[in-house]
């Protein structure tokens, strides 16, 4: 684990040593105690120098490497169902969340059963989650940072104020759930996370006259009336269930435009692994008894509404 910059700065300010001197002292400490990581050795050096080696508060934008002793506050954007896993021969419940602190979004994995129970009963999407003494690590699936809460962590949930209409009654749910989707022409509005993109096909070619999908040329009209259309197939998840979604033409272009990258391959990788949250407007189709969404429009969530 790399030494965090703020810790090096704090030791330097307290002792007058420059970074190279601090790093040399850390290396000597690791040579003396081979079981120590550089991060642990730096924290020992900090304590000995009169520096409290715990940062009081982090922001998501700062968590770019594996970090211990993380204190953070974020709004719960997604709360997933409790899952039962087999951990070293013992059954245990875990919960996944996604939080947003205004500087970024981050997946959260809650391992401690007592905290899982509290969050399952008391926390809702939109509530504020206060976390003390968590740690981050790289996800095995995406390589991105995840916030992990174990038995040594502490949490507090602050309930969000309920949104009410002018009549004073609670406002109806603004978004549909994937579990509510049925085949037909009805348009659904779903807030979801982009979980995976299938990159084997990014474009399809159609004959503009007969509308058939072709490979090189239309059997009837040849290659004079061909149109190349953006086509992106993906999996989206609303926190309770997932579904395949297809983005055609303008919807696909809007999806690609959400990425800051210019190259098509980089855009697709960014969208695939960066946990983008989307508001999609879509109809549902059924193929081989499997429902999928045909996305008509897509946007990034506007939390100011």
Name some characteristics of this structure.
single chain; 21% helix; 5-stranded mixed barrel; 5-stranded mixed beta barrel; alpha+beta; 305 residues
Describe the structure.
The chain has six helices and 14 strands. The chain is elongated and about 80 Å long. The protein is of the alpha+beta class and 305 residues long. It starts with a helix and ends in a 6-residue tail after the last strand. The relative contact order is 0.10. The protein has a five-stranded mixed barrel with strand order 1-3-4-6-5. The protein has helices at residues 5-15, 19-32, 38-48, 113-122, 249-257, 264-273, and strands at residues 70-79, 83-87, 90-100, 105-110, 128-138, 145-149, 154-158, 184-198, 203-207, 213-214, 226-237, 242-248, 277-287, 290-299. A hairpin with a 4-residue loop joins strand 11 and strand 12. The protein is 21% helix and 38% strand.
């Amino acid at each position: 684990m790399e030494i965090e910059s703020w810790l090096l700065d704090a030791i330097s300010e307290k002792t007058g040593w420059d970074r190279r001197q601090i790093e040399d002292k850390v290396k000597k400490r690791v040579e003396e105690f081979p079981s120590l990581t550089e991060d642990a050795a730096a924290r020992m050096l900090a304590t000995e120098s009169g520096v409290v080696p715990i940062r009081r508060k982090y922001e998501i934008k700062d968590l770019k490497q594996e970090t211990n002793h993380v204190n953070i506050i974020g709004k719960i954007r997604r709360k997933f169902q409790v899952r039962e896993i087999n951990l070293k021969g013992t059954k245990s419940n875990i919960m996944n969340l996604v939080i947003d602190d205004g500087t970024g979004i981050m997946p959260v994995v809650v391992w401690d059963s007592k905290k899982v129970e509290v969050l399952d009963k008391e926390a809702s999407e939109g509530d504020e989650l206060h976390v003390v003494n968590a740690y981050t690590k790289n996800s095995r699936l995406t390589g991105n940072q995840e916030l992990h809460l174990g038995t040594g962590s502490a949490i507090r949930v602050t309930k969000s104020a309920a949104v009410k209409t002018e009549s004073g009654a609670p406002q109806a749910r603004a978004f549909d759930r994937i579990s509510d989707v049925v085949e037909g022409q009805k348009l659904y509005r779903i807030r979801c996370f982009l979980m995976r993109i299938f990159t084997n096909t990014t474009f399809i070619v159609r004959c503009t006259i007969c509308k058939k999908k072709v490979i090189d040329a239309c059997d009837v009209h040849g290659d004079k009336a061909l149109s190349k259309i953006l086509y992106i197939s993906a999996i989206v998840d609303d926190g309770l269930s997932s579904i395949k979604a297809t983005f055609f033409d303008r919807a696909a272009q809007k999806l690609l435009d959400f990425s800051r990258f210019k190259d098509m391959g980089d855009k697709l990788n960014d969208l695939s692994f960066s946990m983008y949250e989307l508001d999609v407007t879509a109809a549902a189709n059924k193929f081989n008894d499997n429902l999928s969404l045909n996305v008509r429009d897509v946007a990034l969530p506007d939390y100011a509404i």
